[in-house]
UniProtKB/TrEMBL annotation:
<feature type="compositionally biased region" description="Polar residues">
    <location>
        <begin position="94"/>
        <end position="106"/>
    </location>
</feature>
<feature type="region of interest" description="Disordered">
    <location>
        <begin position="78"/>
        <end position="106"/>
    </location>
</feature>
<protein>
    <recommendedName>
        <fullName>HNH endonuclease</fullName>
    </recommendedName>
</protein>
Amino acid sequence: MRREVALRDGHQCTFVAEDGRRCPARRRLEFHHQRVAFAKRGEATAANISLCCTAHHGLATEQEFGREHVARRVAEARQARERRRVAKAPSPGTAFTTSSFAFGPT
């Protein structure tokens, strides 16, 4: 399905401005549930998905759900990432020594 959408959309953002110009972005593209949002049980079909650059995907999401909702969800995701990062980090004062690794018999 991803390949089908990318080929159909010409590997380019599908956003079209009011003046009729299409966004020229071909990098940092994301799959956007165009007709029915994924959060509203939108299907992952080529007919319901289009390519959008990061900026236009964010714009479409804000238009669908509201700026406050999107800001809250972004903040929640950042906090969750930070909690995972902290949980994985070694304790302060933990030193790595050669005996910490398997170098074979010493």
